[in-house]
Amino acid sequence: MASKEPKTVKHAFDADVEVYLTSVYRDEVQTSQTNTSGDIDNFEMALEMFEGQRTAKDYEWYSNLSLKEGTSILLTDASTAVNQYFQSRDFVEVVLEGDDPNDRRKAKAAKKTINKTLNNRRLYHYMKFTRAKNINNMASHVYALCNWEQEIEKKQTGFTRKWKENGVDEYGRIMWEPMDEPQYTEVVKLDMFNYDVYDARNVFVSDEYVYNIQDKRWIIFRSETTYEEMKALEQKNGYINLNLIKEMSRPVETETSKESTNKGKNRSKPSKTPIKPFDLYTRLGKVWAVVEERTEEGIPKKMRPGYDRDGNILADAELVEAIICFAVSGSNSVLARFDATPYIDSRNSPYKPVCRGICYPHPTKDTGLGEGQLLLDLDSGINDAFNLAFDTAKLKTIPTTISDKFAADDNDSIFFEPGHNIAIEGGKKAFDFLEVPNSLGDMINMIALVKNHTDQVTSTYPTTMGNVGGVAASTTATAIAGAESRTNMRQNYKAITFEYTFLVDLYWMILQMTWRFARPTTALKLMGEDAYYFDPDADYTYTPVTSAIETEYNKYRKLQFIQGLMQTVAAIPNPDTPKILNVLQRMIFEILGPDYDRMNEASFSEGNEARVAAMQGGGTSGSTPAITAGTSNQTGIPMSGGEMNARQIMQQTGGIA
User: Do 361 and 270 meet the contact criterion of CB atoms below 8 Å apart?
Assistant: First the structure.
C-alpha cells in the first residue's frame, strides 16, 4: 500500500516570513504588558473598589464592610457627565470661522452628521459613552476603535433589450439576435459609523509620550473571535490563512477572557461546544511592505510583506500605514490579515481609526492620571477605620469574659441568661468581664478626616452627591454654594479634558468616515439638503458640550427676544420686511430643534405683493405692540402675568398722571 503524501499547507505569503512577522508582533504585545503591568494592577484594584469588594480577613468575627465611598464618587462623576451630555439630543455645537459665505451651511451639515450619527439606535452611544467614562476615571485613560459598517445588496429592477450579432444570412447581411440584460440597483441595508470601547487590559501600545494617539508607532487591540465569524467577514475584512486558522487548536479559555472579561469571576466555559473562540490581535501602525497596487490618488491598495525569510527589509519595500491581524492560541500564531489601511482622510492622508481619552493630563505619562488611582488608599483607609470602629462596638456589646484557668474547666454554668447564676470556684475574683476602652469617637473622627481628604482630592463633596448629613449645622448656604462652585470647576476640567482628548477625535472620525464610505442616500438621510455643503476638510471648532447645549431657560429667553424683534420689524414699513421676518423665523425653528425642522419649509412670501403689503401695513397709527414676557430685573427673571398686565395698562393710559 502506497504511503500518503504529506498534506501541503498553503500560506498567503511565504511561511517563514509570516512566522517572523507574528513573532515580532507578539513580542510587541509582551513588551507592552510588561511596561503597563503597574497601571493594570491599579485599574483592577479600582474595579474592586468600584464594586465595593474587600479582601476578607482571617477571623470569622472580623468585619469586612465597605462604605463604598469610592463607588459613590465614581458614580457621581459618571452621572454628572451623563447629565451634561445627554440632556439634549444635540451632542455638539459646530462652528466654522471664515469668510466663505457657505461656512454656516458647512458647519450645519457637520453638526447634523455628528448628531444624527450619535443618535443612531444601532450605535448604542449612551452605553458606550458611560462605559468609556467609567474606564477613563478608573484606568486614567480609555481607547475606542472606530470602523464603518456597510452592507450593500444588489436588487434586480428589470431588463434592458440589447442586440447581439448572430452571423450573416445567405446574402451576407448581419443577423441580429435580441438579448435581455438584467438591470440592478443598490439596496443599502447598513451604512453607518460605529465604534467600540476597549478594556484597558486588551490594548497594547508603543511606549513613547505623544499628545495624540495618532502619533503612536503602533497600537494592538485584543479581542475574542471564532473561525465562523472570520469566515463570514473574509471578503469584507480581507482575512487570509483561514484554512490554517480552521485547523488551529482552540483553548478552553482565551487570554482575553482570562485577563479581562472573566478575571475574578471564575465562570466556566463549555468544553464541548463546536464553535470555540480564540484571541485575535489587530495591529494598527506603519510596517515595511511592497506595494503591488495603488489607487488613482497613489494610495497603497494591495501589498505584501516587505521582509525576507531572515527578517531583512526588501529593497523595494516602503513604510505603509497598515492593519494587520494575527490569531493566537497558546503558542500557535497565524497571520490573518496584511492590508494597507482603508482609513484615508479627505486630504489623502492615512490615519489610525482610534480615539483615546484621558482623565487628567500627567506631566510624564501620556495615559494621564485617573481618579481610581487617587481613591485607592483613601477608600481603603475609610473602610479600615470603619471596620475597626464596628468591631470595637461589637466587642463592647458582646460580653467577653476573663477567668481563672482552672475555674472554667468543666463548668457548664458559664453562659449568659437573665436570672442565671454563674458558679465559679475561687469566688468573684476568679471571673471578670473584659472592658474594651471606648475608642469609637476616635475612629469616627478618623473616618471624617479621611473622607474630607477624599472629597478634597476628587473635588466631589457630600452636597454634590446629594448628602447634607456631613455638613455642619453652622455652615451657611453661601459657603455650600462656594464649595459647589469649586467642585464645578473640577468637574468642568475633567469634562473638557475628555472632550478634547476623546470626543473631538470621535467627531472628526465621524466626518472623515462619512465622507469616504457613506453612500449618497446615507448622506442625504444624515444631512438633508445641507449634504451639498458637506466639507470634512474644514477646520471646524467643536464647542465643549458643557457650554454648547443650551438650557431650556436660555432658549426661552432667546425666543422672547426674537419674538420681540419680529414685532418691531413687522411694524416698520419697508419692502425688505418679509425677508427679515423669514430670517428671524428660521432662527426660532433652529432653537426649537429637530422637531420643528419641517416648519422651515413654510415662510412669508417675499414677492412684489408682499413687499407692497409690507409698505402699506407697517407702522399703522393706533396700533399697540404686544407685550412679550420680558425680564423684570437685572437677574433675568421673567415677568409674571400681573407685571405684564400692569405694564400694558401703563402704556395704553400713558401712565399715571
Answer: no
Residues in Cβ contact with 20 at an 8 Å cutoff, skipping those fewer than 6 apart: 307, 309, 310, 311
d(CA 608, CA 631): 38
Residue found under cell 488551529: 248
One-letter-per-residue 3-state SS of 38-85: HHHHHHHHHHHHHCCCCCCCCCCCCCCCCCCHHHHHHHHHHHHHHHHH
CA 207 – CA 534 distance, rounded (Å): 38
Residue 429 binned pLDDT confidence (cut-offs 50, 70, 90): low
Q: Pairing mode, if any, of strands 318-329 and 300-305?
A: unpaired
| pLDDT at residue 594, as a whole number | 60
Distance CA 240, CA 224 (A): 17
* Cα-only R_g, the chain: 36
Residue 605 cell numbers, joined: 412670501
Exposure b/e, 395-425, CB count within 10 A at least 16 = b? ebeeeeeebeeebbeeeeeeeeeeeeeeebe
pLDDT in tens, 284-320: 999 999 999 999 989 999 999 999 999 999 999 999 9
- Measure the CA–CA gap between 100 and 127, rounded to whole angstroms: 38
Alpha-carbon torsion, ordered 602, 604, 606, 609, to 10 deg:
120
- Band (pLDDT 50/70/90 cuts) for residue 560 is confident
DSSP H or E run through 388: helix 371-397
Selection from 600, 533, 521 nearest residue 109 by Cα: 533
Residue 498 and residue 133 in contact, taking contact as beta carbons nearer than 8 Å: yes
Gap between the Cα atoms of 417 and 602, Å rounded: 88
Report the range of poorest mean pLDDT among 65-69, 294-298, 498-502. Answer: 65-69
DSSP string of 542-595, one letter each residue: EE-HHHHSPPHHHHHHHHHHHHHHHHHHHTS--TTHHHHHHHHHHHHHHHH-GG
SS3 603: coil
Nearest-angstrom CA–CA distance, 562 and 582: 12
CB of 560 closer than 8 Å to CB of 587: no
The whole-angstrom separation of Cα 359 and Cα 142 is 9
DSSP H or E segment with residue 246: helix 242-247
Entry pTM: 0.74
User: Using CA atoms, how far apart are residues 338 and 287, in angstroms rounded to an integer?
Assistant: 10
E-only strand ranges, 107-229: 141-168, 174-198, 203-205, 218-225
Strands 318-329 and 141-168: unpaired
327 grid coordinates: 490569531
Kindly state the cell numbers that stand for 408: 472554667
C-alpha to C-alpha distance for 636 and 627, rounded to whole angstroms:
16
Handedness of CA 375, 378, 380, 382 (dihedral sign): negative
Query: What distance in Å separates the CA atoms of residue 28 and residue 355, rounded to the nearest whole number?
Result: 20
CA distance 362 to 371: 12
Which residues have CB under 8 Å from 88's CB, separation 6+? 549, 593
Three-state SS letters, 464-480: HHCCCCCCCCCCCHHHH
Residue 46, CA atoms < 13 Å, CB-side half-sphere = 24
CA distance 608 to 149: 51
